[in-house]
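Researcher: I'd like a structural prediction for the single chain below. Treat it as a standalone chain; there are no partners to consider.
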Amino acid sequence: MPAFSRALAPVLLAAGLLTVAPRAEARETLSSARELYASAAYTDALVVLDGLLALNPSREERQSIDLYRVLCLVALGRKAEADRAMESMIVRDPLFRPAADDVPPRMRTAFTEARRRMLPAIIQAQYSDAKAAFDRKEYGTASRGFEQILAGLRDPDLGPLAAQPPLSDLRTLAEGFRDLSAKADAPPPPAPVRAPQPEGPAPGRIYTADDSNVVPPVTLRQSVPVYRGNVTTPLNGIAEVLIDTTGAVESVKMAVPTNGQYEALVLSAAKRWQYQPATVNGVPVKYLKRVKVTLTPTAKE
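Model: Treating it as a single chain, here is the predicted structure.
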């Protein structure tokens, strides 16, 4: 936009002939209002500032605009209007405090006195709104509201007022309801992930050393009888012992025979063998154990 158009924009806006302006143009026009204020053209600055209000500025922009409106109104001696504009700023943002470089000392004092006067009522109104949101179970809104209350109570402009009733009582209530709101608004904990249940043993199955998921039986008593006969060469046999779920021998047979007389001794002795039973995932199971027996030649004298 050419320079003469930018200078004319505030006048057209005030006259209702210009209704829409880009946000960048609004910021530039605010700079123009500041320059007019700095040059003591307070009435012209007010025209520009009032035009900017018609652009529906954001809350932050509105605070900047109204701050310069207050300064201009004070400079023009329009104190009542300045006080109303200042009070509107405090209601809009109770925590707003003008920067030291933006206003003269007497204006900073005026803002401090106005905030000290207004904050107790604002904080009590905020508490009513936050508590109503809590009662409606709108816990997120309530939690934010109670946080704003506590931030307001920490404001240095309140001074000792924050430590006295009713504000000290509001602090206690706000802290309690804030914690309750935050807890109620927190997402539920994730459901515990259950570890897959180990597969139990197959009913009636007899396990052997070929099964990888079985814990073999532990030998408690397994005495193999000594062979007293004569053999010319070693004989190796295998006894298959079926161990039940108590660790006792349920049955036994010679899978690889040796000597008939000796086999009878082995089969008789095996009935007295005892074991700690085999298990699958901690459950006792039947187990077929293979026991090697050896007949060796009798040493010659």
